[in-house]
């Protein structure tokens, strides 16, 4: 290291005090520019590398989220006329439930994990301005060098000599000074730490790839799976939609046989179970191991035994949303549906049963009930406690033997939207159906009944907002078509007449809320 200096003189001190602090001195501008250019050139490749990764991350987030939304809505965009029947497609519904979990957070931890990538993108973009900012060296000049050497101090009077040549000897006496360039090594993150992080991320990538490849290795095929999945860290066959067809398996439906089928699958991934064509069905306790269960359905079976030990409960099935029973031979609601409270249960639909009454225990077992339908059964009257389900939005008892309904049936149904009592020997609609009690009600089916008049509450609903009324094949239709309903306002009579046309008539399958015409093709022997 060499250093050449001159002692400070009075003229040097005078010249420095008279020079503005921020004004560059002669010969300093070119030196500063050269140092700045070299610093920018050294940092630019690394910054471009970081910016490239940030751009890829943003592209992945944006394209991934919007692609998922388009994939979920594709069927509706392609066929906008699709109605709620599409929700009864077993595979589509479960696929939609799994896709929705990618966008919707169900726990606080899930919410934090979904928000973190966006915060990471925001922090990265906030650092872009810092990465691209030009670094101006200050006097004494600091030049960062990626070297392992120590600090080097060089003293030069080259700029002073140039100034003396240009300005003459008299100026040299006032402008003589010393310029010091301090060269220091660049101190970034330690190399060992960088190498450790690189090795860690490489091992993580290898681990993720290995787990994915192992999960995709085909496992022995087990019949009955409608929607196979590929979770990590399991060797069992994984399935989300499971069909147990007693006819195809050659079993009668006893508890041991059904339990052996359930044990053959990875229980954590089963989200929907459909049991069908069982002449003597018994539900085993293994059903309580299915913690991911969203829906449970029994079709065309005789239900012999569903004990409390195999009950559907909120403790064992925190995600259970719907239960469907169709073409079932049973005379009462089984204990497996009323033993404990099923908090998440919102949809209970039954069709083609021999039920005649409902137990009081369903009030405590189904507190969140929203959709309730028991169609084509043997009900002759509705229990009075049915009005104690305040969250019901859909109520259907089509195809029963109801001659009358409780007068206060609709009094507590504040969120009721539609109701169906078609194909009953029903004589009148309860007066409690009104805009005051049911402000959101907009659909009523009383086709193929003995209804001859409409209460004032229904007329008020028809005038309040768009309303769908189905009264074909009723005395009311015959009176309107024969101009014998002078007590009805003309605008209401026109709406009734439109619903009485032959084109608005439905078959017994279409008159029900539970779409048997959709499910039957998927429940073949």
Automatic annotation (TrEMBL):
The residue ranges crossing the membrane are 53-77
Which stretches of sequence are listed as region Disordered? 1-32
**Which keywords, in A-to-Z order, does the entry hold?**
Membrane, Transmembrane, Transmembrane helix
SUPFAM superfamilies in the cross-refs = L domain-like
What the entry lists under InterPro entries is as follows: LRR_dom_sf
Entry protein name: TKL protein kinase
